[in-house]
Amino acid sequence: MNSQIKTRLARIWRAIALPLVLLAAWEAATRLNPVDPHLLPPLEDVVARGWTESRNGDFLTALLASLGRDLAGFAIGALIGTASGLALGFLRPAQAILGPTLRAHRQIALFAWVPLIAVWFGAGEPGKIAFIALAAFQPSLINTWRGVQEIPDRFRELAAVLTFSRLDFLRLVGIPAILPAIFTGLKAALIYAWQATIGAELFMTIAPGIGGVMMQGRQLFQMDLVLLTILLLGLVGAGFNTLAGLSETLLLRRRTS
After folding, report:
1. Of 4, 120, 156, 209, which residue has the fewest beta carbons closer than 10 angstroms?
2. Distance between alpha carbon 158 and the CA centroid of its chain, in Å?
3. Mean per-residue pLDDT for 32-59?
């Protein structure tokens, strides 16, 4: 077994070690009965509930509804955030005018915007997507802006020597140099958007979605359903993070090849 495979296996083990420990502790707690099974049902009950719900089309419909509004909000927020970060980084007037306001905006807790968004866009689908977009906007903006600020001075000096126009500098030097920062922002935005999706479904009007299923489980005191949705949320978030990391690796590898 070569060192590369060993390193990859070690990385996978580190990633799954804590979840396995938590699952083992969960199973031990339900087997030894130190907690009320109505509050923490056995793991096999949650798995059985997952099988039952998977055969019921409503659960899949709820998941697809959540994913649809999540990706719509992410696309809007990430596009505006990345474009704003580029403008703030490369255009001094934009940085002088908008920079202080956007820095102040960063200090406001995300969920503090829920009442305002509900008034402006309503508590239905447009309001949910607007809230998700806001969650994706901030990390995309900040990481892109920071990436432009961290372009090495020698790159700018070389562009000046070669008499690059501003457009040539942006196309040949600026954008390639900040691609890692942009991808970092997009990865964070993807996770923030998924968290905001569930928050919007919980705190705005109930609509088809995983958040609605969770609320149903809480209201009916069906803890197996609540825990099932929590596990599903974690798996989807981990999947998003993995896909974003693979996409970043592939695109950056093609850029350097």
Report:
1. 4
2. 37
3. 81
